[in-house]
């Protein structure tokens, strides 16, 4: 890889230069390692198909690199202190935040090793925290109806209703749904298909359920931008991830539903498919899982585990 053009691939200033007086305090390693960081973030973006991941990794890299004398001489102790230490707010990070920080640094140093910038990755000796998997929660059909009933009869409400319905019918994650553009829809054979770059960088082409097509069309009409008038790069929903999260929380609060997040919509999608009789294999394909084992674990946590072994024990005890 030609690192000299890294800034063209991802125009992000990773390392903030601290100025003293009129002259910048430039470490001798800065230009070279800033190019390495930019090239690494470009690779992350190309691999994941996401803009959010390289932006988040870039923030962590910038903070870490600004605090070391020379990135090539960084030690596992420095990586550990950064990953597990307090952030700019002064608060200690959650296990998930520690994991993301470590992923950013481990990937960066692995990239530098592959580019022959160093021989050893200092992040390899830093262990990830033990992360307790949160129990997924899916809404029932009645709960989703109650939630949808709280969306206002305004263009913004129609948009949010379309997002919720699309998320539940497709199983897409928040960023995948909100990233859909007019050009991602394709009409063929009487059906509509969508293209979405999913987790892991996989490009997915899948039928968009007819009810989702209808609510999206209704939302665009309410906004005054019918689909046929939109450019290929125009967003179908035109709302930020944070903006939708806030709106969804407000609707859930009014509906009397607790702990509803955008990802709960994906859990709900899986739960409702399973309740409708879909097999584990079908649910796995629907969610885009790469292995049946992942889907089985996902559904076991979502549905709870059946226990039929107690029958014989209860009978033996005479408490059946």
Features:
hpI Integrase, Chain A; two-stranded antiparallel sheet; 2 domains; three-stranded antiparallel β-sheet; 6% strand; mainly alpha; 52% helix
How many domains in all?
Answer: 2
- What's the β-strand tally? 5
Strand order of the largest sheet: 3-4-5
For CATH, the homologous superfamily of the largest domain is named as: Intergrase catalytic core
How far do the termini sit from each other?
69 Å
Mean pLDDT: 84
Described by the principal axes of the CA atoms, the overall outline is globular
Radius of gyration: 24 Å
Supply the helix-strand structural class: mainly alpha
CATH topology of the largest domain: hpI Integrase, Chain A
Count of helical regions: 14
Order of helices and strands: HEEHHHHHHHEEEHHHHHH
Please state roughly what percent of the residues sit in beta strands, choosing from under 5%, 5-15%, 15-25%, 25-35%, 35-45% or over 45%. Answer: 5-15%
CATH class of the largest domain: Mainly Alpha
Largest sheet: 3 strands, antiparallel
**What is the name of the CATH architecture of the largest domain?**
Orthogonal Bundle
- Residue share in helix: 40-55%
Unreliably modeled segments: 1-13, 15-26
